[in-house]
Specification:
Number of helices: 2
Structural class: mainly beta
Distance between the termini: 25 Å
Number of strands: 47
Helix content: under 10%
Strand content: over 45%
Shape: globular
Radius of gyration: 29 Å
């Protein structure tokens, strides 16, 4: 189970005291905050020589603000501290020698707890035993609203999710929707945020929402840090035997994850370093497929991939606080992902009396990522009034080689291809925030330039399935300037958030002019993306909110990449440079009720999209090869209800459960696939009701022992041209704190019943197939960590 962040909001209240007659500052005046109910003292301070004061760590409540100074009339006024801004500035307060009437002042504050504004959920990983030693993708398995389908994240039944790291898109997780999460160690992560209704401050990409992964970073005085080591085993037994004549599938696969986090803070300088290494052997694919064609052909096939992965992440930087108003952070990240895949794919006839093909391959891939970041912040004299300027540079190299042995009944061929892609991204942003009497205003701009030259070389052998003419060069260019404004307002009863982001997008994709099918293409648009949130607070524990936002899903570079991908010899994935952006409008009604030992959050949501992006599988005449190509089809709809309930039963036991039930629909459509030759594909309206249920249990034993048990049920759901069957898993973890709280030992296991099997059914024109993937889901890990 993940630890929900439920800390009470802490607000900094500031202002200035002046003389009513002379308008000059009043230095060293006394400023006190007392509870309105019983006048209990809460906090106090004195103004500085310029008449300014600042009161920190004020919780949300109703108060009396009391200002006094020798020779002046003491001034008292009611103050309400809300839940929307961490920094609040009072209007200038004037002291008179004589009594004066008082104006009521309303102050707001922003909560930072789970679903505090009903737009975001935050989960800490520090006390999560189940995810320790695994990847970020595995850590997300039990998050409310999140499901994992075929290695991709879905929020509320949609995989159009934007993944951020520390609030920014990077090549580690992809600048489109998502990638690489299964190779980022969870040990490197502090917390994960789920943002279902992003404000205009965030980029407009990702209609399902945003997942923000926040890396660990210490800022304690002096030298301190944390070290950890985890090891484990996966694929403890074979769930389904291999087809004949192929190499063994991986079993009892080792996992190793050492990590270190160091920090040194002295005076105005903070130096930090974080290193993580993850080595895994994994059965990433073990899929059994039965293909049926209208002409009577029947093919049995298996795709098995044994993978060795080395993933190294090094992150370091320095925070330099010049003074109380100005600071600069410079940081760098290096990531190296080395993948070796050894795959086997046999093809048999219906009764296994004849092997039609054996496709054996070696994939040798190296991904290298370098990120350099500089962030400058200027804090104005009023707390919360700030200007941030940032620059981020990313370099990402994808160096991939495949070597194939193609065994046919009467011949043997050797095939190969090589891919080299160098991605460079320049991001520049400016963000300005100013607290106001009833909330705050923020605005900013962002500029991005992204360039990805790609070169693919196909080397076909005898009777090869490779399309040698489909290689060559292609270059992706992306230019996105954007500007946004967002205003948040709060009184004791009402909240409102109004924002708009204006984005211009220019995409150019230059294709090798000798490509047999595709030509250079791209798209552009200039459009606004508004967001609205209106909330009514019955009281401090009971709030209802209405949301509206408009977002976009821009095709990622790999979605339009023209090169066929041959990790399956006869079900071949191809990009489409003619893809356009998909636009989505969302509305939601959310409610949260909180009591002393728990809370319940519920939401009704509806999304409707134009130009839905999906992958279409079809065949061409006189061939049994299936080509899966991205297309913009018709309208699609996603509607549902989500409930998150958490309750502390006793000091020994608490739990949370999530229920998400939704309806997905894709309207009927007809498209023309261009590759490898033009052919028409049509589909009727497709719809289904689906959902998921998650139950996370936490036990607190004596002697500093914590235990967690998590159950996940995923109902049947639709996928392009078909459906996926129900799945279920059960996970557990146990941790014991030792060495006076500095050390910890843990053991955990995922899918302990070995029940998480991905089963799909696909219906195409003139063919259909079923696929059951018995990939590795069961892993047992043990580990140790020590902080100093």
């Amino acid at each position: 189970m993940f630890t929900n962040i439920k800390a009470q909001t802490k607000v900094t209240v500031s202002g200035k005291i002046i003389d009513f007659t002379t308008k000059s500052p009043v230095p060293f005046a006394s400023v006190l905050v007392k509870l309105e109910t019983d006048s209990t003292f809460v906090s106090g301070t004195a103004t500085n020589e310029a008449g300014f004061f600042s009161l920190e760590n004020i919780k949300s409540a109703n108060y009396i603000l009391e200002v006094s100074y020798l020779g002046y009339q003491t001034k008292k006024q009611p103050v309400f501290v809300g839940k929307l801004s961490k920094f609040l500035k009072l209007p200038t307060i004037e002291l008179q020698e004589n009594a004066t009437s008082l104006d009521e002042i309303t102050i707001t504050s922003k909560a930072n707890l789970i679903s505090g504004n009903l737009d975001k959920k935050t989960f800490a990983l520090s006390n999560n035993q189940i995810s320790s030693g695994g990847s970020v993708l595995q850590a997300m398995q039990n998050l409310p609203s999140v499901t994992i389908n075929d290695g991709k994240i879905q929020l509320r039944g949609s995989d159009k999710v934007t993944v951020l790291i520390n609030g920014k898109q990077t090549a580690l997780t992809g600048f489109g929707n998502q990638s690489g999460l299964d190779n980022i160690p969870a040990s490197a992560i502090d917390k994960i945020e789920i943002i279902n209704n992003p404000s205009a401050k965030y980029e407009a990409n990702g209609n399902a929402g945003i997942i923000n992964i926040i890396y660990k970073k210490n800022n304690n005085e002096g030298f301190n840090g944390k070290v950890g080591f985890t090891t484990g085993l996966g694929s403890l037994w074979e769930r389904k035997d291999n087809f004949p004549t192929i190499r063994p599938q991986y079993s009892v696969t080792p996992k190793v994850n050492p990590s270190v986090s160091l920090n040194y803070l002295k005076n105005k300088v903070n130096i930090f370093f974080q290193g993580d290494y993850l080595y895994t052997e994994t059965l990433t694919k073990n899929e059994f497929v039965e293909r049926t064609y209208d002409n009577g052909d029947f093919i049995n096939q298996q795709l098995k991939r044994n993978r060795d992965t080395h993933f190294t992440t090094l992150k370091s930087g320095v925070d330099w606080n010049f003074n109380d108003q100005n600071s600069l952070t410079i940081s760098g990240l290096f990531g190296s992902e080395k993948i070796i895949d050894r795959g086997d794919q046999p093809f048999f006839n219906q009764d296994f009396s004849e092997r039609l093909r054996l496709w054996q391959f070696l994939e040798d891939e190296l991904k290298t990522t370098v990120i350099a970041t500089a962030d400058y912040q200027h804090k104005f004299q009023d707390p919360g009034h700030s200007l941030n300027i940032g620059f981020n540079y990313t370099f990402h190299r994808e160096d991939e080689q495949y070597f194939y042995d193609n065994f046919l009944p009467s011949s043997k061929g050797k095939d190969a291809f090589k891919l080299l892609s160098d991605e460079q991204v320049y991001d520049f942003n400016v963000d300005y925030k100013k607290p106001l009497k009833y909330g705050f205003f923020e605005t900013g701009l962002k500029f991005r330039f992204r360039n990805i030259p790609t070169n693919m070389l196909f080397i076909p052998g005898v009777n090869s399935v490779l399309d040698a003419d489909a290689g060559g060069e292609a270059t992706y260019n992306e230019l996105i300037p954007a500007i946004y404004g967002n205003y948040t307002y709060e009184t004791e009863t009402w909240e409102a958030e109004l924002g708009v982001r204006l984005e211009h997008v220019q995409i150019d994709y230059d294709v090798n002019p000798n490509h047999p099918t595709y030509k250079s293409d791209g798209y552009n648009y200039t459009q606004p993306f508004p967001n609205v949130r209106i909330a009514y607070k019955f009281n401090t524990e009971n709030k209802i909110s209405v949301f509206y936002n408009r977002r976009v899903d821009r095709p990622n570079e790999v979605d339009i990449r023209i090169f066929p991908k041959y990790d399956d010899a006869e079900i071949i994935k191809v990009g489409n440079p003619e893809l356009q952006a998909q636009f989505t409008n969302s509305i939601e009604l959310g409610h949260k009720y909180t009591w002393e030992t728990g809370s319940i959050y519920s939401a009704l949501y509806h999304k409707f999209s134009d130009g839905t992006i999906t992958r279409i599988s079809s065949i061409v005449p006189n061939s049994n090869l299936i080509y899966a190509i991205f297309q913009n089809v018709n309208k699609s709809f996603n509607s549902g209800v989500e409930v998150v309930f958490e309750q502390e039963i006793t000091d020994f036991y608490d739990f949370n459960t999530t229920v998400n039930v939704y309806r997905n629909q894709i309207d009927a459509f007809t498209v023309e696939n261009q590759y490898p030759t033009p052919h028409i594909f049509s589909a009727d309206t497709q719809q289904t009701y689906s959902g998921n249920l998650k139950l996370n249990n936490s036990f607190h034993f004596k002697n500093d022992i914590e235990a967690q048990v998590s159950a996940v049920y995923l109902a049947p759901d639709i996928i392009p041209q078909g459906k996926v069957d129900a799945r279920f898993s059960l996970d557990f973890g146990v941790k014991k704190t030792i060495q006076k709280g500095k050390g910890a030992l843990f053991i955990n296991a995922t899918d302990i019943l070995n029940t998480m099997v991905l089963k799909r059914e696909i219906e195409g024109n003139e063919f259909s197939y079923t696929a059951n993937d018995y990939y590795e889901t069961q892993v047992v890990r043990i580990g140790y960590s020590y902080k100093f």
